[in-house]
Amino acid sequence: MLYHIRMDVNLPADMDPEERADLLARERAYSQQAQRDGHWPHLWRVAGEFANVSVVDVADHDELHALLSGLPLFPYMDIEVTPLAVHPNKIDQ
Ligand SMILES: O=C(O)CC1=CCC(=O)O1
Assembly and interactions (predicted)? Predict the structure, then answer.
């Protein structure tokens, strides 16, 4: 199943710089592993914002929740999920 995801990152302004760097490094490793595994085919920065839009490919809602809640930045993000269905007018299905 495909899901469109928007993640807005809200790190505290006064977060310890080492903790921030560690979190971001762990986020990068986690999402890059999910990309290698084929579960995260699109990851785009929202221009001008500390936010991303993504498409993830997982078996079901439970796997989606496991993927998202495992993100090191999960406690610091607002996440909006949109389930995707096939558009009947798309030519290359
Ligand atoms: O948008 C960000 O920087 C947060 C994030 C989610 C997955 C990732 O690699 O970074």
Answer: Homodecamer.
The pTM score is: 0.95
* ipTM confidence: 0.98
Largest CA distance in the chain: 50
Please, what CATH class does the domain formed by 2-83 belong to? Answer: alpha beta
Q: CA dihedral defined by 35, 83, 71, 20, rounded to 10 degrees? A: 100
- Please give the distance, rounded to the nearest whole angstrom, from the Cα atom of residue 52 to the centre of ligand 1: 6
